[in-house]
Design a protein that fits this description.
The chain is an alpha/beta fold. It contains 12 helices and 7 strands.
């Protein structure tokens, strides 16, 4: 990886985010399960002839392992050392799965791929036009791209609820520039379509999917607040606050969570795009 390219994300996912997502892997996979199912269904891999698959931003390996278990060959690529170590541990002696610490925006592979998939891993490139142009070069002619990305924050209760609590205690946070790397960088279908088509992809399709997301496996408002304060867009801003302000945020979060609990557990709404395209 060239010095500076995607460096902020590499640092984030090898420190703050990587540590928390590694430790919370079981809960995070459960949180995202509805969207993982939507990704796998759109991939068309179940029951298909063996394909060579690139999993971009594979994290702790959930989607890569599911693909391998369907009888396909999969290379999972990520920039987080800790998440990849966990992915490798989870893989055990499975055949057909390889994990690689690399930046997908410039990684070159020995064999072209039939399919590129990603579960929330393609919205963080400093230069998404260049990244997708390179990744599409790793596909066979006619190869497919299938990924999931978040719709706007306002449509995602798992984002709006903790952020509303946060800004009730602190100053409003400045939104990132619309083209900056972020979980919501691909929320606008027009912008995303332009990036994909410029990279040589056609037949771009967006399908909206909504699902409830479990906010951790702990019972009660305290455990749910623990999870919300560690995972999601509010986590880093909260971690940067002084301890007395964090305590205020926690108190307000627990108060906001309590009436939302069902049988002691918190679930919040999530909204994504399932994006499909094909290499010309």
């Amino acid at each position: 990886m060239s010095e500076g390219k995607n460096q902020a994300q590499k640092e984030l996912w090898n420190t703050f985010a990587g540590e928390r997502w590694t430790r919370r892997q079981v809960d995070i996979d459960a949180m995202l399960s509805g969207f993982t199912q939507a990704l796998m269904q759109a991939s068309g891999l179940e029951g298909s002839a063996s394909q060579n698959v690139l999993d971009v931003g594979c994290g702790s390996g959930e989607t890569s392992l599911m693909i391998a278990d369907l009888g396909h060959t999969v290379t999972g690529v990520d920039i987080s050392t800790s998440l990849l170590a966990l992915a490798q541990k989870r893989a055990g002696d499975r055949a057909g799965v390889t994990f690689l610490e690399a930046d997908a925006s410039d990684a070159v592979f020995d064999s072209p791929f039939d399919l590129l998939v990603s579960r929330f891993g393609v919205m963080f490139f400093d230069d998404p036009h260049a990244a997708f142009a390179h990744m599409v070069q790793q596909l066979k002619p006619g190869g497919r791209v299938v990924f999931v990305c978040w719709r706007p924050p306002a449509e995602n209760e798992w984002v709006t609820m903790p952020m509303q609590v946060l800004v009730s205690v602190t100053e409003p946070l400045a939104p990132p520039p619309p083209d900056a790397p972020s979980p919501f960088a691909f929320a606008n279908p027009e912008r995303t379509t332009a990036i994909l088509e410029a990279a040589g992809l056609t037949d771009v399709k967006f399908t909206p999917v909504d699902a409830t997301m479990s906010m951790g496996s702990g019972k009660g408002a305290i455990k749910a607040a623990d999870f919300v304060m560690e995972v999601g867009p509010a986590a880093l801003p909260i971690a940067q606050l002084p301890p007395e302000t964090v305590a205020m945020v926690r108190e307000k979060l627990e108060t906001a969570i309590e009436p939302r609990l069902e049988d002691g557990y918190l679930s919040l709404g999530g909204a994504i795009w399932v994006v499909e395209a094909r290499k010309a």
